[in-house]
Design goal:
Two copies of one chain form a homodimer. Chain A is of the alpha+beta class. Chain A folds into two domains: about 140 residues, 60s Ribosomal Protein L30, Chain: A; about 180 residues, PurM-like C-terminal domain (Phosphoribosyl-aminoimidazole Synthetase, Chain A, domain 2), CATH 3.90.650.10. Helix content of chain A is about 35%, strand content about 25%. In chain A, the strands form three sheets. The first copy, chain A, has a seven-stranded mixed β-sheet, sandwiched between helices. The first copy, chain A, has a four-stranded mixed β-sheet with strand order 3-6-4-5. Chain A is globular.
Chain lengths: ~350, ~350
């Protein structure tokens, strides 16, 4: 029989102690971690980068098919991804959790096991752990802290005309993983006897449930002495992110459909659902790849990198924001994003 | 007629822009504020202090009697209070908001007006503004960042035997404000014709709905060249906070009931409800005063301060954690906190 410890049996402070006791400090800059009014970190000679996210059950995740351990891992990934997208190194996170009494201590332990695994993977220290009851569902607030050498951070607004648009890894898989899990959920709700059919879908489902942030790309930038002119992480779909860079840099762009990196598994999954793989890459989300722009003179540094694709370039704002399809026709690039799909808009 | 703009009409990014456009940067250390993947702050020669809080409708606040503007103000106060409790100066905050579609843009504007007023009052910059829909209710996540000269932060665990227990301002008022508003809510729900009776209760209700954090006390410490040995803010009631300091400093304590500062308005309100004012101060919460310990040799620095009361001293752990009542009897100090009241436990 599975153990179930009621949260009330530990009390609020006992619970925080219980959940955070196995976290070891990984950064010398972490001076005071969890357990006081506030955490203290030291950033002599560095600049501090901060980001926060609020994740709400039923809006950002569905616990029917999301294991809590994966959710804990993904919470950290989503936040450190924003730190990497500034060309910085994540160093600490603060977590706030709200949960109704349907959750046991064991359930929270699962969540924290995932947080722990991600903290190890990305070398970050947990330095804040507020917990609270909620009237309904599971609510996660996460703040990530990172550091960067003075003025080495990369914003969204630094792209220049002629810069190359680059993207890491491949796109669209997480959206197809979601589509698949939503289908299996519907089938299960109609007939709980039917076992989920996830055969051959490990890649897309894995990309949704346990994404990784591209710390390797940030390390590569350092080794290659390459500083992108602008950067953003791909959480809402490629087109939405490109449009952010265009808007904030006051530029237009040209994107080539044939250059958009899409994994073979993603293409196959898309075809099964009668979806266009390019649309999934453009308007799906949660891939947590990095979209960045580089000066043309840096092209030689990225051209051999197996995890970086050049997908287009930046142009005068007056030239518009354009995508050339494989057939050679020209369309305006529009942002639909994740939400458009959820509403059946794509 | 009141204006009502649907949030969907602005879109997520339009909404953040709309809500944050009037915030001016107040700290030179704020390099990149709201609007990128992450914020960037500069802390050369200082240490960074961080804290976060998750506030959930129906758990931490009741919108039936909490104006959204006050709630925005209080959100900032609650977080900067934790920064002051480290003897640090708050410099930035990051906000995450979740809200269902019952909220209009005007409602969020009200909330942000309160945030803005508090940012001005406490000199902090808003540097992060994640927003999200929620399935139910209003959810607030707030992270505050502060700075402190190297190794000048004050933790909960630094108290020594013989140190004096001091508290700022007065206690118990916020709990009585809550008791009153809960009573008026019940009366209103039973008979919506009855007007709320808040005559003479401005002080207690104000302490609940629009608390202030004690930046004046932190400034006084600096001017008086006084560094407390331990400090915590009073959010859960005096006894709970004293026990935190005792536990983390591995000490016992003696507290004198007659020394606990309670405002005349608080006493009067307590008597109306047949409550003991001391119990309200010990076990109520949300006063956001500072509880701190100082070496006896620093007594002369605080003895004339009209906003600081010496309420007891720290002792060997073996001597226990004790309160002497006005009648001279001796009791063990126990933590009941805010929740005990809500459950009718006090």
């Amino acid at each position: 029989m599975e153990e179930r410890t009621e949260i009330a049996s530990l009390g609020e402070f006992g619970l925080i102690e219980h959940l955070t006791k196995n976290f070891e400090i990984q950064n010398a800059s972490t001076i005071v971690p969890v357990g006081d009014d506030a955490a203290v970190i030291d950033h002599y000679g560095k600049q501090t980068v901060l980001t926060n996210d609020l994740l709400i059950e039923g809006v950002h995740f569905d616990l029917m098919y999301t294991p809590l351990k994966h959710l804990g891992y993904k919470t950290v990934v989503v936040n450190v991804s924003d730190i990497y997208a500034m060309n910085a190194t994540p160093t600490q996170i603060l977590l706030g959790l709200g949960f109704s009494n349907r959750f046991s201590v064991e359930a929270l332990d699962e969540f924290y096991a995932g947080v722990h695994a991600a903290c190890d993977e990305y070398g970050v220290d947990l330095i804040g752990g507020d917990t609270s009851t909620s009237q309904k569902g599971f609510i996660i607030s996460c703040t990530a802290v990172g550091e960067v050498a003075p003025d080495k951070y990369v914003r969204r607004n630094g792209a220049k005309k002629g810069d190359l648009l680059c993207v890491s890894g491949d796109l669209g898989a997480a959206f197809l993983g979601l589509t698949l899990l939503e289908r299996e959920k519907r089938i299960f709700l109609e007939n709980p006897q039917v076992q989920p059919d996830l055969e051959g879908e490990k890649y897309t489902v894995g990309r949704l449930l346990k994404p990784e942030a591209r710390k390797d790309i940030i390390r590569f930038f350092e080794e290659a002495e390459l500083t992108p002119t602008a950067m953003i992480d791909v959480s809402d779909g490629l087109s939405s992110e490109i449009l952010h860079i265009c808007k904030q840099s006051n530029l237009g762009c040209v994107l080539y459909e044939e250059k958009i990196p899409i994994a073979e598994e993603t293409r196959e999954a898309a075809f099964k659902f009668n979806l266009d793989p390019t649309t999934c890459a453009l308007s799906g989300g949660e891939d947590y790849e990095l979209l960045f722009t580089i000066s043309q003179s840096d092209y030689d540094k990225v051209k051999e990198h197996p995890q970086i694709s050049v997908v287009g370039f930046l142009n005068e704002a007056e030239e518009g924001r354009i995508i050339y399809t494989k057939g050679g026709t020209k369309h305006a690039l529009t942002a639909q994003g994740w939400n458009a799909f959820n509403k059946g808009g794509a």
